[in-house]
Amino acid sequence: MNRIAKRFLATSAESIQQTQYNVFDRGAKLKHRSLIPRSNPSLSRKKDYLKDDVAIKTIERLGFITRPMDKVLDFGSHNGSFLKNLCITEDIPQQGIDQADVEMLKQLNKDKESIRGKIKELVMFDSSEALLNRDIDEEYAKVFPGKVTRVVGDEERFNHEVLKENEYDAVISNLSLHWINNLPQTLANINKVLKPDGLFMGTLYGGDTLYELRTSLQLAELERRGGISPRVSPLVRVNDIGNLLNRAGFGMLTIDAQDIVVGGFPDIISLCEDLQIMGEQNAVLSRSGYLPKDVLLAANEIYKSLHGEVHDGEVTLPATFNVIFMIGWKKSEDQPKPLERGTGQVNLKDIL
User: Fold this and answer.
1) Cβ distance 237 to 206 under 8 Å?
2) pTM summary value
3) At what angle do helices 238-247 and 183-193 cross, to 10 degrees?
4) Which residues fall within 8 angstroms of residue 283, CB to CB, at 6 or more apart?
């Protein structure tokens, strides 16, 4: 085989390797996420409710981790929802709330204080400089006793100097990984930067997210245009997460999913505006350039008919966000391992 043929084959293989996972337009997504935080920070803060909710749920799960976490990487940190909710103490109402809820809020505040004391250095890593630095002067950050470092870098390329192997005791990633093209490789890279027996705790939107919007747009476009365009991003299913984490080198996995339903949208346009302000609008490479008005109006009526909720005589629209929570540990010789088959001392027949 001559040199030209070899060079052509090598170049072709490299091109295929670089593009085979490209589903999302990362450049467009960076613009989506940066526009509102840069132009209207206060509006951007108002639409942080999903990130804040998931950050609190992450803190609740971290409360069960008793080991030290001196150096933590917040991968795809957005504006720092994890840091914000870690530093803000929950208000406990004096009346109008069940005692069980009071105890839960007290425990959450204890968990926040405990976790703050464990983390000596928090590295916030995100591709959007505008979003990363949006709240840099907020008062809540002064409550955090450790060092906070904000780093701008591409989550997908994973080539920044702060992403060294065996560097972090824990990696947190909240609602960022669903925009990664090559998710298996990114998870493997996260595994590399962890110290042996290090903790990875991540969340991302799962496959049933916005199913109401998805089905309404599909039916409307099928009716008005006779076909379907990719209006909503493809998302990973919870059944695939275990395989992805195993392939990336993680062990002792814990995976669960939870639906967060946000209600009260007066129409489909209001929902799409919220998604746009959050930076969560469609960024699929094969997406259509615009949504025709007649399709949008038809989708709105279909949405109300199939999924609408009646409150005080008004029909409002709910939006379901399926959030997948995953925990994995970098493998280490010191980790507890399951006993070999046949070494059990108790017969299940005697118990059952």
Assistant:
1) yes
2) 0.88
3) 50
4) 24, 25, 26, 28, 29, 32, 179, 233
**pLDDT at residue 223 in the model:** 86
pLDDT at residue 309 tops 70: yes
Q: Rounded to an integer, what distance in angstroms lies between the CA atom of residue 210 and that of residue 274?
A: 13
**Residue 339 per-residue DSSP state:** P
Show Cβ contacts of residue 52 under 8 Å, excluding neighbours closer than 6 positions: 81, 84, 85
- pLDDT at position 150 over 70: yes
pLDDT in tens, 236-290: 999 999 999 999 999 999 999 999 999 999 999 999 999 999 999 988 887 776 7
Contact 149, 123 (CB under 8 A): yes
Q: What's the rounded Cα separation, in Å, for the pair 260 and 111? A: 22
> Is residue 251 helix, strand or coil?
strand
* Contact indicator for 112, 89 with CB cutoff of 8 Å: yes
Residue 262's beta-bridge partner residues? 319
Structure confidence by residue, pLDDT tens digits, 312-348: 889 999 999 999 999 999 998 877 776 677 777 777 7
Q: How far apart, in whole angstroms, are the C-alpha atoms of residue 293 and residue 296? A: 5
Give the Å distances, CA to CA, from 165 to 79, 138, 161, 198, 312.
25, 32, 10, 12, 57
Domains of the chain: 23-333 (3.40.50.150)
61 closest CA partner among 245, 331, 260, 325 = 325
Residue that has been written with the tokens 């809540």 in this structure: 140
Please count the other Cβ atoms lying within 10 Å of the Cβ belonging to residue 44: 24
**Amino acid (1-letter code) at residue 241:** I
- What per-residue confidence (pLDDT) applies to 287? 78
Q: How many angstroms separate the CA atoms of 186 and 180, rounded?
A: 8
Structure tokens at 93: 């109402």
Written as one string, the DSSP assignment of 138-175 is -GGGGG--SEEEEEE--TTT---TT--TT-EEEEEEES
Q: For the chain, how are helix, strand and coil distributed in percent, rounded to 5?
A: 45, 20, 35
